[in-house]
Amino acid sequence: MNFRLLAKMLGLLLTLESLAMLVCGCFAILDPVESDVSAVSPLMTAGVVTLIAGVLLIISGLGKYDRIPRREGVVIVGLGWLLCAGFGAIPFVLSEPGLTLEAALFESVSGFTTTGATVIDDLQSWPRGVLLWRSVSQWLGGLGILVLFVAILSMIGGGAKSLFRNESSFQSGESSSARIRDTALTLLRIYVVLTAICMLGLRYLGMSWFDAVNHAFTCLATGGFSPYDDSIGHFSDWETGLMIEIWLEIFMILGSISFLIYAVAMRGNWERLRREEEAKWYLGIIFLATAAVWLVGVLPGELVPGETIRSAVFTVISSMSTTGYVTTDYELWPVGTHFILLGLMLIGGCAGSTSGGMKVSRLILLVRSAFHEIVRAFRPNQIFRMQVNGNPIDDAARAQTVMFVSLFAIMAMGSMVMVAILESGNGGDFETMVSAVLATFGNIGPGFGEVGPTDNFSHLRPGTHAFLSLLMVLGRLELYAVLVLFVPAAWKKY
Q: Based on C-alpha coordinates, what's the Rg of the chain?
């Protein structure tokens, strides 16, 4: 392990994060609405501490490096997310009303991993500067803070392919064959432009600039943080409430479709777009799930048809994109809808998007693999040629997908047992324990039971907060980039 290279790259990453903190601190100073400057000191202190740590790491790793080897790349990705979340927790500890260290870490990790789960009971009691930092952390984590980092590396030199390849959101065959830095810069431009369009639309529909910025940041990131306890339900009764929901639905979908598709479209590669299957499956699942939720809710006569279709569309899109915005308490719906929503949360969005979950591409691969195995039961000698998005899939790719899903399931079940042990005697029920794990491990946000859409994670014990924070990072980096940190061979010096 090249520790000097590791220190330099992590130092650059922390320096980038410190600048974002300092910008939020400047907003707290200049905020024309809130006279309370209680956010200034926490944000500025956190920014300076993070900047000092970053500079010290850069100095300790001074040197010229032509490339980042694969092993160092994987470790930088894993440690980078952990360090960013750790330093990002400082404002939540120092600010009033303040959080415990474990709760602050949970809130910060939830932001950077775009999970959207929260431990804050009364958001309106927090300074606007800290709430802005909360949303900024999701915006940074949405595209993948390492992808932003790669874009910066393109201007300062140094190999970045390993970082780009191992950042979970962009494991794509196209990204490995393209010029990695140019692709990262293109994705960054697309991300910024879509965020700006979303923000301007929300402002036009009546939101204040503060609300428009916060929700644009967390919508494109499919993170779901809102400065209001009732989330998007805060705007539902407005005259433009329906239009705000529709506008957010559009950008939740845009954020949960592979950003590489937008890059391909910009290059005019229409043949590649015609072969795109994952986005078609994604939109098809949303349509079918919306119809299913509406029918399950309406047919028994429990819900009003007209009101249900509006809330069904928003909740389905919010769930499958793993954004976690809420306009209604879906726990009051028939239990059949709960299973539909849970399935959508676990599937998630498309590979190469800002969404969490196991990704639609893996679902496609699993469905086709299962079909082929069924056919092989009576035609054992038949040869299959499997493709996804027009790209051939070999046996190794199929095995990796099955291994990932199996490992995800095993770790999820083990985590449920661990959370149940940690919460022993704290009054948690089965539904809460299961959904708390799935909501964090899948980077979903709200779950069911005591961590449902109208509740939060604040009542859980400190040990549980720390454990669920680890699960969020594992889910965001799709297991391997974090698990490798626990392998002794990865740390051997050479």
A: 22
For residue 248, pLDDT over 80 is answered with: yes
Q: Which distant-in-sequence residues (6+ apart) come within 8 Å of 446 by Cβ?
A: 116, 117, 224, 324, 326, 439, 452, 453, 455
- Rounded Cα distance, 442 and 450, in Å: 18
- Is 90 exceeded by the pLDDT of residue 424? no
Report whether pLDDT(157) > 70.
Answer: no
Residues paired with residue 388 on neighbouring β-strands, in sequence order: 391
CA–CA separation, 486 and 494 (whole Å): 18
Helices (H), 205-334: 209-220, 241-255, 259-266, 270-275, 278-298, 305-320
Q: How confident is the model at residue 36 (pLDDT cuts 50, 70, 90)?
A: low
CA–CA distances in Å: residue 411 to residues 282, 419, 448: 26, 12, 20
Residue 398 CB-density burial (10 A; 0-12 exposed, 13-18 middle, 19+ buried): middle
CA distance 346 to 338: 12
* Long-range pairs of 23-26 with CB within 8 A, sequence gap ≥ 24: 23/136, 24/91, 24/129, 24/130, 24/132, 24/133, 24/136, 25/129
**Averaged pLDDT, 324-351:** 91
DSSP string of 311-344, one letter each residue: HHHHHHHHHHTT----SS-GGGS-HHHHHHHHHH
How far, in Å, CA of 283 to CA of 278, rounded?
Answer: 9
Q: Give the position of tokens 């490798």.
A: 484
Whether the predicted pLDDT of 359 surpasses 80: yes
d(CA 102, CA 98): 12
Residues 113, 141 contacting (CB under 8 angstroms): yes
Residues 216/238, Cβ–Cβ less than 8 Å: no
Residue 85 scores a pLDDT above 90: yes
Band of residue 486 on the pLDDT scale cut at 50, 70, 90:
confident
Phi, psi torsion values for 51, nearest 5 degrees: -65, -45
Whether 234 and 244 have beta carbons less than 8 Å apart is answered as no
SS3 392: strand
Task: Return mean pLDDT, the chain.
Answer: 85
Q: Which of 171-180, 187-196, 447-456 has the lowest mean pLDDT?
A: 171-180
Burial of 370 (0-12, 13-18, 19+ CB in 10 A): exposed
pLDDT of residue 66: 62
Angle, vertex CA 324, rays to CA 115 and CA 173, nearest 5: 60
392 — phi, psi (to 5°)? Answer: -65, 140
